[in-house]
Amino acid sequence: MSAGPNAVGSDDGGLLSTSYLDKVHHLENANADLEFKIKRWYENFGKGNFDGQPETIANITTLSRTLKLRYHSEVALYQSVELDSISLRSLGRVDSEQD
Predict the structure, then answer these.
(1) Is residue 1 included in any domain, yes or no?
(2) Is residue 20 classed exposed, middle or buried when 0-12, 13-18 and 19+ CB atoms within 10 A define those classes?
(3) Does one domain contain both 42 and 62?
(4) How much is the pTM?
(5) What integer pLDDT is reported at residue 5 of this predicted model?
(6) Is the predicted pLDDT of residue 64 greater than 60, yes or no?
(7) What is the H or E stretch that residue 37 is in?
(8) CA dihedral in degrees (7, 10, 16, 19; nearest 10)?
(9) Which domain range does residue 69 map to?
């Protein structure tokens, strides 16, 4: 019985070659190990449920929004102060010209 081009154990690079299946098996094991490590990390540091969004990510999202609002508030305050400063300078010029 002759093995076809995609038979298990063929060395012609077929889709189901032994070396391909070995690589797939190795990657599956590595992936399972990585998933276990990620789950353990979230249990220890994530303060959240691995099946849902961890609290740390929610906290980071909230912090990001808060910082964005603060930034825009600071920019608006800066612009307001800058306009007031320009107005005061122009009033100072007008007063000095009237003296």
Answers:
(1) no
(2) middle
(3) no
(4) 0.39
(5) 47
(6) yes
(7) helix 18-41
(8) 160
(9) 53-99
